[in-house]
Amino acid sequence: MTRLEKRIISEIDKANEMWQLFTEDDPLLLAVSGGKDSMVLWHLMQYYPVRLKGIHIRLSPRFKIDFINQNNLEDQIEVIETDIYDKIKGKESSLNTCFICSRERRKEILKYAEQRGFLKIIFGHHRNDVVETLLLNLFFSREISTLLPQQELFRGKFKIIRPLYTVDEKLLISLHKEKGWYLDPPGCKEAESSKRNYVRKLLAQLEAEHPQINIRDNIFSSLQSVKSPFLPFPIREEI
Hints:
The protein is an alpha/beta fold and 239 residues long. It has one domain: Rossmann fold (3-Layer(aba) Sandwich), CATH 3.40.50. Helix content is 45%, strand content 12%. It has helices spanning 3-19, 36-45, 66-70, 84-90, 97-116, 127-140, 169-179, 195-209, 215-222, and strands spanning 27-31, 51-58, 77-81, 120-122, 150-153, 158-161. A six-stranded mixed beta sheet has the order 3-2-1-4-6-5, with helices on both faces. α2 (36-45) packs across α7 (169-179), α4 packs antiparallel against α5 and α6 (127-140) crosses α9. The chain starts with a helix and ends in a 17-residue tail after the last helix.
């Protein structure tokens, strides 16, 4: 195990201790997109004594999945063939294509989990995703909320867990380079014009203008320092 692997695993251990994400011999279904985040998580979860299964939701027959063969994952990652992307684009919807695509992909994952008896599903979201989602919801959904390290669905029937919750994306990029994993080029161009990418660029610009401040870290830390006496309205509980 390299120093970088140990550093990220220590973050996973801390997250697991804080939020009880998984235990020994847990059957876990890991959604492997083929991007660096899920590849890192798939690799590092091999160090834990859990029963791990990987699936990849192919959004269109036109999208490449060479990463499976190139990284010798044929016997480890099951591919679920769909035409989600083609159906969405065929409708020429004015709605958020990325949001709809993500929702439909999650439906496929949950359907597979139910059929195979998996109660915990792992996603590779990291600290940067948490910060971006917080700002996305603030700017465009008029609410203060973000991704959770552990999220229950259907009254606790399923749990989504995010072991990389506190991990800085830079560490994942570094480990990907260290291991030299092959990643497929993006099959979808929609992400380039998405609201998430807009927020990502905005954060990068703020960091460039204020190099002495860790903007993302400050925003993430603010989630642990909510001063309700200085909020003008009572917090409305929603389920």
